[in-house]
Amino acid sequence: MSHFTHHPAASHDLVVIGGGSGGLAAAKAAARLGASVVLIEQAELGGTCVNRGCTPKKLMWKAASHQQGLREMESVSLTDVPSFDFATLRRRSDAKIDKLNHHFEEELEQAGVRLLRGRAEVGEAGQIHAGGEVFQPGKLLLATGARPRMLDIPGGELAATSDDVFGWDDLPARLLIIGGGYIGCEFASIFAAFGSEVHLMTDGERLLDQFHAPAVDCVQAGLNKQGVNLGFGIKPTQIDFNGTMFKVSFDDGSIQYADRVIAAIGRIPNTDQLGPGLQGIKCVKSGALAIDTKFQTSIPGIYAIGDAADRLPLTPVATRDGACFAAQHFGDNADQIDLNLVATSAYTLPPISQVGRLEADHDDGETISNLSSDVLDDGTAAHSFFAAAFSDNVLNGVALINHAGPDMIAPFAALIASGATAEDIAAATGIHPSFGEETVGR
């Protein structure tokens, strides 16, 4: 029996729980298609990406890129590197995020979406309780995102997460990062560029296991060049803090000391505290909700997108899926995007970007282009890298490393989608001298 106080339920076509990229896209698109929509959000609009992820990280990466570039230019002509103020960067980042939050609120209002601030809970009868109100939606969309995974060891709560890092006002002299995925590698590269002594430890045998192995080798070489100390195949067992310094013990008997510790060991979908109405809902191993091609969960009338759903946990996917959901259920229908055509980047210095399939176990062809070189040969930055995989002479995947990589990778997704052949790519001619000319005309 439900423990909720009984209130008359308001009827709406759609209730969206979560105002991140996916929830915002779905709510606005559905409202523009004529649906009555309520969006419930207990924190800032924009979700992880805008507030504690992509946006502040990209601003931080940009500053780190400039800082490293200035330092590397000493080998060419620059003799006096300007000072860097980390606190000023944080304030400017906060101002940018605040502006985006207000922009999202205005967009919802213009689309006719009602925004309700508060924590939502799904009742046993499918009613949504939030802010003292009760809703009985025609459809419920869960877009609740994910949160950082904590270290499950004694003292694990002492480690900062990515959420915490964007609130720092000062740079740690010595930084220890645990985890070799996107977040760990990005922070390692960024803070090394800022001048911190960085140590990155992972229980895996390689970094960035989602990316093409030869490209990751170049990322690792770049981190080494930045002075990042890497450790593989070890796990932390305990964290202690004496009020000044962190002491981290590992399962191989080694000990690391640091001014700050970051746990970058993945994220957990926010699907475990949404109320009794979701009891028994089917989840995959990660905790994300299992969905079908219409974003339907195992409970009729309840749908999921974004990091809460079993899809790629990337902002562009959440945004596209939100619009797709609205079209499927309130418009003229639409198909889910092909995840094989979703490009991704890790913002190391320089970034690594990839789309499609490159590894041997996913591809029946071979990688016919595998370039690693310092194009301008000026002694700056890490080597650029380009690899293209073909299956039956048709482009199957691309990986590249270059400062312009995140801007370059999307057109390769379009080439894969269009069935471009090796001859099609060889027919193009790039600008000289540039990294781009190394990706075509071969």
TrEMBL record:
Pfam families: Pyr_redox_2. Disulfide bonds join 49-54. FAD binds at residues 58, 307. GO terms for molecular function: flavin adenine dinucleotide binding; glutathione-disulfide reductase (NADPH) activity. The active site is at residue 432. Binds 1 FAD per subunit. SUPFAM superfamilies: FAD/NAD(P)-binding domain, FAD/NAD-linked reductases, dimerisation (C-terminal) domain. GO terms for cellular component: cytosol. Its cofactor is FAD. GO terms for biological process: cell redox homeostasis; cellular response to oxidative stress; glutathione metabolic process. Belongs to the class-I pyridine nucleotide-disulfide oxidoreductase family. PANTHER family: GLUTATHIONE REDUCTASE. This is Pyridine nucleotide-disulfide oxidoreductase. It comes from Phaeobacter porticola.
